[in-house]
Amino acid sequence: MKHQHTQMFIDRVNAVLGKHCGRVVDQLEIKFIFESKLVDHLNNWIRFAMSTHAKNLAFDLAPPSNLLKYGDHYRFPFELLDNKSISCLACLQLSFVCFKPPPADFIGFPNLRKLDLHVVKTTRQDLESILCSCITLEWLSIVRCHLKDEMKVVLQPLSQLQYLKIMHCEVTKIEFDAANLSTFVYDGPYIPITLHHATKLENAKFWFRGAVFQRAATSLLNGLPDVQNLTLQLGMQRLEVFYIGTIFELWFSM
Question: Inter-axis angle of helices 39-51 and 2-19, to 10 degrees?
Fold first, then answer.
């Protein structure tokens, strides 16, 4: 029954795409439970999106209930992205995919403005390489991406980045260079966080797990001197700091 359901989904997607062959398609979104049978079809659907110069691409894949039985994440095929088509991409959403090192001639995502990564399997080096290629990125969300290493983007500053969210990721340190960052959201264990040149940071929200409140609060207040509104929550303890000119208000609640 499951295989019939998967085949029915494949047939329906192919039928819809067949009707739009040769046309310009602004957005393609695929949402389904991943299994190895889908790999060739997913690759073909990416080829279709590139051929139509799609601006928005979303592969919202969900892990199967038995991950060991069905194998690993879907490997994102960077080699299928030609330079002309990839320049059209403005928004990219990927879930349950694996990043391997892109080909040597990969130009990155030169016009990507929004990137949403969820349950992506990758390494620190590969993620850093990809993010550094997104020079026009304005919005970035990374959720449940377990690097077990530093998350660092400083070699190529993300000078256009305005919104950054990092939640439920196993990382040892976060370091970004983003001069136009206005909003930062973090949920996870207490780790060192450095946001270089973030003089325009207006709102920062932190949900730390397993941290000493005084230590976390002192570290953030010293490390984010330009933030206007800071919210820090550890369990039932909550700290809010609001800066107005050279004066700041501090609220603490239990």
Answer: 10
